[in-house]
């Protein structure tokens, strides 16, 4: 299981890459493998300011639909447009081309987990 050291994580299996005040967010390798083949990603919160743990979208796999939870407070500024035509990028490249949204961070990020803490959570 791939858990990049440079990223931060949540108990809900989102990953966060923080660069300045912009956070790129997606779901972890563990999450995509648990969900199976992803067929649709829906995010209708671009332009919205959301708090930690609010739902920012959903990901639909062959067998289930899961909510996506905000790992940081902030304004959703961008959606990965590639996912409209290629939702399978979340499966094939969850930490790269499969990112979901970018957020202008407006809150504290200290509650995010390190790679080591996340690995312990998922038993990796």
Automatic annotation (TrEMBL):
This protein's record includes keyword Electron transport: no
InterPro entries, alphabetized: 2-oxoA_DH_lipoyl-BS, Biotin_lipoyl, GCV_H, GCV_H/Fam206, GCV_H_sub, Single_hybrid_motif
Residues with PTM N6-lipoyllysine: 63
Pfam family, one: GCV_H
GO biological process terms on file: glycine decarboxylation via glycine cleavage system; protein lipoylation
Domain Lipoyl-binding as annotated: residue spans: 22-104
Cross-referenced SUPFAM superfamilies: Single hybrid motif
Swiss-Prot/TrEMBL keywords: Lipoyl
Transmembrane segments: none
GO cellular component terms, semicolon-separated: cytosol; glycine cleavage complex
Cofactor binding note: Binds 1 lipoyl cofactor covalently.
Keyword Amino-acid biosynthesis: no
Cofactor: (R)-lipoate
Origin superkingdom: Bacteria
Family: Belongs to the GcvH family.
Subunit structure: The glycine cleavage system is composed of four proteins: P, T, L and H.
Protein purpose: The glycine cleavage system catalyzes the degradation of glycine. The H protein shuttles the methylamine group of glycine from the P protein to the T protein.
Protein name: Glycine cleavage system H protein
Native source organism of the sequence: Algoriphagus machipongonensis
């Amino acid at each position: 299981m791939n858990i990049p050291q440079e990223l931060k994580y949540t108990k809900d299996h989102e990953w966060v890459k923080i660069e300045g005040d912009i956070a790129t967010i997606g779901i972890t390798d563990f999450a995509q493998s648990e969900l199976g083949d992803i067929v649709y990603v829906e995010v209708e919160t671009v332009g919205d300011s959301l708090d930690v743990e609010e739902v920012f979208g959903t990901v639909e796999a062959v067998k289930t639909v899961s909510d996506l939870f905000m790992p940081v407070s902030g304004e959703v500024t961008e959606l990965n447009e590639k996912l409209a035509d290629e939702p399978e990028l979340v499966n094939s490249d969850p930490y790269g081309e499969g990112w979901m949204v970018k957020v202008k961070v407006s809150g504290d990020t200290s509650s995010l987990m390190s790679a080591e803490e996340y690995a312990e959570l998922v038993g990796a």
